[in-house]
């Protein structure tokens, strides 16, 4: 049997207990419960969340006004009656993260995919926020310039 001891984890647990924090199963205590990357790719933003061990049917996405909420639940493993847990370090329970979408993004056309424990969202830039040509009228005719 393999058992790993981390003295800093135990110190962190004791500190949380002393100052009123919790370290209960189902409570995510890390600063970034869902680490994410976000970048612009052409006419869209791509946001990727790490959700290892989360089933696709345990993920909820919601957009209200300009706030995108990702909610996920990591469920305990299905084990038999004779199984005795020796080490349980993986956080379980429900956790969420919110991302504020700027006015230049189109929350109506968000696309989501989930593969290999990574939730990827593609958020297109709104049409009204894209650069466009504006016609300028002159006595000699019309001229197009970039806005």
Automatic annotation (TrEMBL):
Taxonomy, superkingdom: Bacteria
Any single Pfam family the record assigns to this protein: HSP20
Record-annotated SHSP domain positions: 27-139
Similarity comment text for this entry: Belongs to the small heat shock protein (HSP20) family.
Name recorded for this polypeptide: HSP20 family protein
Taxonomic path: Bacteria, Bacillati, Actinomycetota, Actinomycetes, Propionibacteriales
């Amino acid at each position: 049997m393999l058992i790993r001891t981390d003295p800093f984890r135990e110190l962190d647990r004791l500190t949380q207990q002393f100052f009123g924090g919790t370290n209960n199963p189902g409570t995510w205590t890390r600063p970034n419960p869902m680490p994410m990357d976000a970048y612009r790719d052409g006419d869209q933003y791509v946001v990727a969340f790490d959700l290892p061990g989360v089933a696709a049917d345990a993920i909820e996405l919601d957009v209200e006004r300009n706030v995108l909420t990702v909610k996920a639940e990591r469920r305990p493993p299905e084990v038999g009656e004779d199984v005795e847990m020796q080490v349980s370090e993986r956080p379980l329970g429900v956790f969420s993260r919110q991302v504020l979408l700027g006015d230049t993004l189109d929350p109506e056309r968000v696309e989501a995919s989930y593969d290999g424990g990574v939730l990827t969202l593609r958020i297109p830039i709104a049409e009204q926020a894209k650069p466009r040509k504006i016609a300028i009228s002159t006595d000699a005719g019309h001229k197009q310039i970039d806005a």
